[in-house]
């Protein structure tokens, strides 16, 4: 299987100008000027006028559904493959959330494997909001070593739905993540859902002060609360990564939160964006009673990417938040860049930033704006 994209405007994410891009099987083989290729079954695609970018990586999706805050009826549905394709997401990390009773990490692993078989690339974090952690094997170290898809462990902090872990509990979990990662040859992450109850970053900073490398700590929802956002900026300035949820923020738009972080002097390389897709978005009143519920869309990453361009960022400045930064910080080799030898996960966008073609692992899943490969139960 070979595809040649002629005369694309390539953002790797850095701008490379007009190039031809050759894909063979699941890999990018060449990104060059005027490629002349002769291969059996080679398909040539005219990409003149199209921007060719890495496929987007979304590191926080409730692929088996989340929610549950309003009883069984509020459990959100599972993700379908075509939802990812319509917004250019070709890699993801699946997570569980509030509901640690009816959502299992085994089901999450099953869905991650299903999505991988259907065409995208998928990983997961074990556990959910609660302590003790909910694991596949009973041990954090074994989850990291025995299950290739497991990148880390999820927890909630500073949230009325969290288990309010103590510093010592967190230290023990992070130590297990660090050692499990060492043994497995992974980095090992604590993926932290942040609520708006103060105190989470004080603990994270204390953990770093005690000698735990900051790259193990991965706070998300960093722009849902003004005070938390201010602390996330300080955390990013000391070398941490701040993940901004494109599904909602305390700014008018999540893109404005990223713009504000950049204006505050945060290194753009330390910012990532994820959707929180298929999570529930409960709204609580001042007494903590739930008064409404929505479902997060995985397409919010693409929407906020467009918003960042409207705010004056160039495409090469905005793309890393959902491509190369995410791949580098998650340690996903061969992902997140348009480069020979890298995974052929590609988006081709028109002048209005509309998706024309999407490739995942070398397969055209969207062609001329139409999703052509659907999930098993979508036919
Ligand atoms: Zn979530």
What does this 3D model show about the protein?
The protein is an alpha/beta fold and 379 residues long. The chain has two domains: 2-54 and 337-371, Roll (Urease, subunit C, domain 1), CATH 2.30.40.10; 56-330, Alpha-Beta Barrel (TIM Barrel). It has ten helices and 19 strands. α7 (254-263) packs across α8. The longest helix has 18 residues, at 167-184. The model has no long low-confidence stretch (mean pLDDT 96). Bound molecules: zinc ion.
Q: What is the overall number of helices? A: 10
Order of helices and strands: EEEEEEHEHEHEHEHEHEHEEEHHHEEEE
Ligands and ions found: zinc ion
* Number of DSSP E strands: 19
Question: Which structural class should the secondary elements be placed in?
Answer: alpha/beta
The CATH topology of the largest domain: TIM Barrel
Going by CATH, what is the homologous superfamily of the largest domain? Metal-dependent hydrolases
Rg value: 20 Å
Shape: globular
Low-confidence stretches: none
In total, the number of domains comes to: 2
Q: End-to-end distance, in Å? A: 24 Å
Strand residue content: 25-35%
Mean pLDDT: 96
CATH architectural type of the largest domain = Alpha-Beta Barrel
Main sheet summary: 9 strands, mixed
């Amino acid at each position: 299987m070979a595809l040649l994209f002629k005369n694309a405007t390539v953002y790797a994410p850095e701008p490379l100008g007009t190039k031809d891009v050759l894909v063979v099987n699941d890999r990018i083989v060449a990104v060059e000027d005027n490629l002349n290729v002769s291969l059996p079954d080679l398909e040539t695609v005219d990409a003149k006028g199209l921007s060719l970018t890495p496929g987007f990586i979304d590191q926080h999706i409730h692929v088996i559904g989340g929610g549950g805050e309003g009883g069984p009826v509020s459990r959100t549905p599972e993700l379908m493959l075509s939802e990812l394709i319509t917004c250019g997401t070709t890699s993801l990390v699946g997570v569980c959330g509030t509901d640690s009773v009816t959502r299992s990490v085994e089901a999450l692993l099953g869905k991650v494997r299903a999505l991988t078989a259907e065409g995208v690339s998928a990983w997961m974090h074990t556990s959910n909001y609660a302590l003790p952690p909910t694991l596949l094997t009973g041990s954090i170290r074994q989850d990291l070593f025995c299950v290739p898809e497991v990148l880390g462990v999820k927890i909630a902090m500073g949230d009325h739905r969290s288990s309010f872990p103590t510093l010592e509990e967190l230290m023990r979990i992070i130590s297990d993540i660090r050692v499990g990662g060492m043994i497995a040859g992974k980095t090992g992450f604590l993926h932290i859902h942040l609520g708006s109850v103060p105190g989470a970053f004080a603990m994270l900073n204390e953990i770093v002060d005690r000698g735990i490398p900051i790259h193990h700590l991965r706070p998300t929802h960093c722009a849902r609360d003004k005070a938390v956002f201010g602390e996330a900026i300080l955390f990013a300035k000391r070398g941490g990564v701040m993940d901004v949820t494109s599904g909602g923020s305390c700014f008018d738009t999540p893109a404005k939160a990223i713009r504000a972080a950049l204006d505050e002097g945060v290194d753009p390389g330390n910012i990532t964006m994820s959707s929180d897709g298929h999570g529930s978005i409960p709204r609580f009143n001042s007494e903590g009673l739930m008064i409404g519920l929505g479902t997060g869309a995985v397409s919010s990453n693409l929407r906020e990417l467009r918003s960042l361009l409207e705010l004056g960022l160039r495409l090469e400045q905005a793309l890393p938040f959902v491509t190369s930064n995410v791949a580098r910080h998650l340690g996903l080799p061969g992902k997140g860049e348009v480069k020979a030898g890298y995974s052929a996960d590609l988006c081709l966008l028109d002048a209005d930033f509309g998706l024309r073609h999407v490739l995942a692992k070398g397969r055209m899943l969207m062609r001329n704006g139409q999703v052509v490969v659907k999930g098993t139960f979508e036919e």
